[in-house]
Design a protein that fits this description.
The complex is a heterodimer of chains A (about 100) and B (about 550).
Chain A lengths: L15 E7 L5 E4 L5 E2 L11 H13 L4 E11 L5 E3 L2 H8 L10
Antiparallel strand pairs in A: 1-2, 1-4, 2-3, 4-5
Chain B lengths: L5 H23 L4 H9 L3 E3 L4 E5 L5 E3 H14 L3 E4 L5 E6 L4 H9 L17 E2 L14 H11 L14 E4 L13 E7 L5 E7 L11 E8 L3 H15 L10 H8 L1 H15 L8 H10 L13 H6 L3 H10 E3 L5 E6 L10 E3 H14 L3 E4 L5 E7 L3 H10 L14 E2 L14 H10 L3 H7 L4 E4 L13 E8 L2 E8 L11 E2 L4 E2 L3 H15 L7 H8 L2 H8 L3
Parallel strand pairs in B: 6-7, 7-8, 16-17, 17-18
Antiparallel strand pairs in B: 1-2, 2-5, 3-14, 4-5, 4-13, 8-9, 9-10, 11-12, 12-15, 14-15, 18-19, 19-20, 19-21
Helix pairs in contact in B: 1-2, 1-4, 3-4, 3-12, 6-8, 7-8, 14-16, 16-18
The chains are: A alpha+beta (about 100), B alpha+beta (about 550).
Chain lengths: ~100, ~550
């Protein structure tokens, strides 16, 4: 999964969200339509074209205290409206590591 | 163990206070992330996929038990109950909250641990042989010199804003366990014809997207001149190293572009310019550092105690002893390597409970001292042979007696896409599957010494270039794809592996490794011919044919 840290041009191919890490604890968060952050992907604002993505990203970047490193990430929106991460990286960010953590091994 | 003085303690405590203030200002919005980032990096704090990652320094891989217990405490109180030992002898915590980091640092500072220079474009933790001070045939304890360099370079303004990170490793044995040839500067401790201590100096090693094996630029630098010589190297790097392109900023690129002869001349000129008494080390300084490294009061013990003779009848004990126990410079003692590579477990991880229990065992059996090796294992440097059976039983109860040191399941792996924001593919699940495939100890022993190194991206934190079998995860069309190399090594004969062909999918990697191993077993001339010997004799073609014949 190409790291979004290398994301330079904003060009989206489908539904996307803005995601970041919350500043005080680092957890994964998503930008909501209410100009806030949520740890729940289902509450994320969905953008569908580059202009919308640029606007949402600009607003997210401006909230430097709330979250850090915002970037645009792809999602899949099911027929039922359910939102899923669009690639493995984002799947791991939302659901956690794919391995047993030592305390659980 | 090295005993820190008041200057060290003051420095560490002041750094905690300073960082506490910086975090407070960041959380209040007084500092932007852009302003704060360099400050957090200077204190070992990265941002990873799920959370902040906190990298703690373990200078030259040496820990006292109160320090190990403090790491367990941090894992338990501030993280998720475990830590990850790294290829640079440090430990990382993957789930730290920024708001709690100053408290974690303060708790570590109580036992003299810090996170300074574990990230950022500065001089990183100086690494060394995890068997330093106890390895038979060693010239002298390389940690004395590691500590000298640590003191000189810590917060040194000239070395705090380098073009890129800078890593030094030191070895003092013929067999290089510190992987000095893949470091920016590698130092091999030697004696000259007068019996004086000095160093062969190698420069320009490193892995990442442009791997190079370090080259010798000076065959002997007297110990008293080593600081000025390192400083000369760093000055040349500071002056000519590229700052415009992060991918070309490491010293290895400069050495490659200038050529080793020109680079050597530049360093020599600079050295002659700055080589003056102020940078020459007095013998008293070395002796003072030497005196701060304390060694156990070893007993006079038999080479083969009754306890060991009796335990030899137990095949499980013998399997562990043969792979985990190494000769010690003092008769009656051994060096014990503790594998952090359990079957199905993430390489290099240890739980808080394991660390605490291990600290008790280290107090009981290793004079309170433990080491971290770059292979992501631990070592007990002073174990009486008579105690080996009891230690083994205790380690086994903790899940720390996997008898696979130096075998195919003793895998080095970076955190990969499960944790790392730079990664393109997962590393740990590949390692886990391989440890399951080769869990049969008889099979692993039959294969013999074979190192697998796995990286989840081209930055090569899992040192895949120098794995006997190297596995590099990349991304292709949204899928994880793994490139396989053969023939790399990180020891005194360091070499980069050769790519054997097109990348394979996640699910195929373990099958490919099995094919390579089967080919090796069929091709070797005798059981004693190690994997690397067969590769050297035949090249990679037979392995390539085997892997791709049916793919």
């Amino acid at each position: 999964m190409t790291s979004p840290l290398e994301q330079k041009k904003i060009k989206i191919a489908g539904p996307s969200v803005v995601t970041a890490n919350r500043t005080w604890d680092g957890i994964v968060v998503y930008r909501t339509a209410a100009k806030s952050w949520s740890a729940d992907l289902s509450e994320a604002a969905i953008v569908r074209n580059s202009d919308e993505a640029k606007a949402l990203l600009a607003e997210s970047v401006a909230d430097d205290v709330g979250a850090i490193g915002p970037y645009i990430a792809p999602v899949q929106v099911g027929a039922d409206g359910k939102v899923q991460p669009g690639n493995l990286r984002e799947q791991i960010r939302r659901s956690g590591v794919t391995i047993g953590q030592p305390a659980q091994v | 163990m090295y005993a820190y003085d008041e200057i060290d303690r003051t420095l560490v405590n002041e750094r905690v206070s300073e960082f506490r203030d910086q975090v407070k200002r960041r959380l209040s919005g007084e500092l932007t992330e852009d302003e704060f980032k360099i400050l957090r990096l200077q204190n070992g704090v990265y941002l990873q996929l799920h959370a902040y990652m906190f990298r703690v320094a373990i200078p030259y891989g040496t820990l006292a038990t109160n320090q190990l217990r403090a790491l367990a405490h941090v894992a338990r109180k501030y993280d998720r109950g475990y830590g990850h030992f790294t290829t640079r002898q440090n430990i990382q915590f993957n789930w730290i909250k920024l708001a709690e980091l100053p408290d974690a640092l303060a708790d570590l500072a109580k036992v003299g641990i810090h996170a300074m220079q574990t990230s950022g474009n500065n001089m990183r933790n100086v690494t060394s042989d995890q068997w330093a001070g106890v390895a038979p045939g060693e010239i002298e304890d390389p940690r004395i010199w590691s500590e000298l360099i640590r003191q000189h370079t810590t917060l040194h303004p000239e070395f705090s804003f380098l073009p890129r990170k800078f890593k030094i490793a030191i070895t003092a044995s013929d067999h290089d366990r510190a992987a000095i040839k893949i470091h920016d500067i590698g130092l091999r401790l030697i004696k000259n014809e007068k019996g004086e201590t000095g160093f062969e100096v190698l420069v320009g090693g490193g892995l990442g997207r442009t791997p190079f094996i370090a080259k010798t630029i000076k065959h002997f630098v007297h110990g008293r001149d080593i600081l000025s010589y390192i400083e000369a190297i760093l000055r040349v790097y500071n002056q000519y190293g590229r700052r415009d392109n992060i991918y070309k900023a490491r010293i290895k690129i400069l050495v490659h572009e200038l050529g080793i002869e020109k680079f050597s001349r530049e360093v020599e000129d600079e050295w002659q310019h700055i080589r003056n008494p102020s940078l020459q080390i007095d013998d008293e300084v070395i002796e003072d550092i030497r005196s701060r490294f304390t060694y156990p009061a070893y007993e006079k013990l038999p080479h083969m105690p009754d306890e060991l003779r009796q335990a030899a009848a137990d095949p499980d004990f013998e399997a562990w002893r043969k792979n985990s126990v190494a000769p010690h410079k003092v008769q009656g003692y051994s060096i014990v390597t503790i594998s952090l590579k359990p079957t199905g477990g993430p390489p290099g991880d240890a739980t808080a409970e394991q660390m605490d229990a291990l600290a008790d065992l280290v107090d009981k059996y290793s004079f309170g001292e433990i080491r971290v090796g770059h292979e992501q294992n631990l070592a007990l440097p002073h174990v009486a042979k008579r105690d080996l059976p009891a230690l083994w039983k205790a380690l086994d109860k903790l899940g720390l007696a996997t008898p696979n040191v130096n075998l195919i399941t003793d895998i080095i792996a970076c955190p990969g896409l499960d944790y790392c924001s730079l990664a393109n593919a997962r590393s740990i699940p590949i390692a886990q599957e391989l440890t399951r495939r080769f869990a049969n100890h008889e099979l692993a022993n039959l294969i013999g010494r074979l190192h697998i190194n796995i990286s989840g991206c081209i930055n090569a934190c899992g040192h895949h270039h120098v794995g006997h079998i190297g596995i590099l995860g990349v991304e292709k069309n949204g899928e994880e794809v793994y490139q396989i190399t053969i023939g790399g090594r990180a020891d005194e004969n360091a070499a980069l592996g050769t790519l054997i062909g097109p990348g394979v999918k996640f699910d195929e990697v373990a099958d490919v490794v099995e094919d390579i191993v089967e080919a090796y077993l069929a091709l070797r001339e005798r059981p004693e011919e190690l994997f690397m010997d067969t590769v050297r004799r035949l090249g990679v073609e037979p392995f390539k044919e085997r892997v791709y014949a049916t793919r």
